[in-house]
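Holo prediction. Input below; ligand is flavin-adenine dinucleotide.
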Amino acid sequence: MGDSRITKVVIVGGGTAGWMAAAALSRSMGHLSIRLVESDEIGTVGVGEATIPAIRLFNALIGADEIEFIRETGATFKLGIQFHDWGRIGDTYMHAFGQIGRSLGMLPFQQYWLRGRNEGVAGPLCDYSLNATAGRQNRFARLPRIPDTSLDGIAHAFHFDAALYAAYLRKLAEGAGVARTEGKIASVRRNGESGHIEAVVLEDGTAIEGELFIDCSGFRALLIEETLETGYEDWTHWLPCDRAIAVPSENAGPARPYTQAIAHQAGWQWRIPLQHRTGNGHVFCSDFLSEDEATEILLANIEGRPLAEPRTLRFRTGMRSRAWNANVVALGLASGFLEPLESTSIHLIQNGIAKLLAHFPGLDFDAANIDAYNRRVRFDYERIRDFVILHYHANQRSDSPFWIRCREMGIPDTLAAKIELFGSHGQIVREGDELFVEIGWFQVLTGQNIVPRGYHPMADALTRDELAGFFDDIETIIARTAAHLPGHEEYIAQHCAAGVPA
Ligand SMILES: Cc1cc2nc3c(=O)[nH]c(=O)nc-3n(C[C@H](O)[C@H](O)[C@H](O)COP(=O)(O)OP(=O)(O)OC[C@H]3O[C@@H](n4cnc5c(N)ncnc54)[C@H](O)[C@@H]3O)c2cc1C
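Structure of the complex:
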């Protein structure tokens, strides 16, 4: 048996995706020779600033020290996302990370909560979440468990400066032997027989050869689409927003330990607090709002002084028909785009890398292996897509044609089935390793005002007094624990203040 191992990997693109791939592959597969090509002239998108807790697994994989990472990227802690005006104008709810309440016997907490709400003995869902309660009070500490109880502590992610994160990853990757070439790719050389890519050729004629190519070239999708013409599945009929205006601003007041997602007339606005500035953006649908109008709405709703001119980003929601085609694996924006409502893009990069490591090919590029990768990546994309659509579709707003259209549009069968099952007695089934867990779906379904017709009959096993006691105990522990946490900014100042200028 000859040596069929891949040794030469070329990564095209030095945005978040490119450097994440470089850091992870160099750390996990020391025998690879990895070269990353990026063009300073083209630049990066660089607005991926909000994450979910799984990013901590990625940072651990690449050997990043959490405190050092926070300092170098100006990061703040993130406990969840607060949604304003989504179901109806005036509504506010939180999709908090981590545990809410606790299960009892075979039933998850939310089944007791549904009964408790009916009978007037349960408070708002967020009162049973340490993340939500601490977030509301601008408090934070790293606390994996609540001492002397059976309750989990805080589950955290981060907000960070994407450009600084890419620089940090580059430092780690170069330290692990990744070589970098600065230059613009002008053409691509393919094998006449197999169609596989053999080399990318720079404007100055330099050819960079490889065996496996990772396309992290952003929306342009230089290899996977421009060269291989793989195809793109368009999901704009479900997620019609196609533009964003982004602008950073000075911090005005203490950094909140959560992202804000504020619905507007034809889209929504993010507020992402970093240590040295706040990231703001307005995601909107150009069928309903012009760029000038969207900019005006954004600037009227930021809290501090703008630090730069607003810039426009254009996108088309959907995914590449196959994220892996021939000897090219696309990651990041080259593989597809789901808008940042649930901060899932960086996670999808992480996920693509983890699956690439699991399915790492040999020189034969076995078709069964590639198919398995593509199936798994598609599943992840589709389930996250469904979760994001839910926020738009389950609305009761009648103040603008955009929201009416979102409510009246058809939705994927997989999402329809989830909503229908939930509507019966609040049940949510997490299939396979889909990203969002039951309590995540539950918070958004109830936050968007979908009320199940009933609850599981086993929740009747408790008397009304026992049920009230169950809720009181949890609420008391959560309130007491939150009250003892330091302020979010105080915690950062003590443990991980950054030295980055605005
Ligand atoms: C409006 C908006 C908000 C977002 N918010 C979030 C968020 O809050 N959380 C989150 O997780 N994600 C978010 N994302 C997604 C996130 O920004 C991206 O997933 C992430 O930045 C990865 O981008 P990338 O590396 O794939 O592409 P890019 O950043 O576009 O990088 C592309 C790279 O390819 C190189 N390149 C391209 N063509 C060539 C060429 N011909 N020759 C050489 N090099 C080339 C470029 O130089 C660059 O280095 C957001 C995206 C958008 C559009």
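The chain has two domains: 8-76+160-233+318-383, 101-156+386-488. That is the main takeaway for now.
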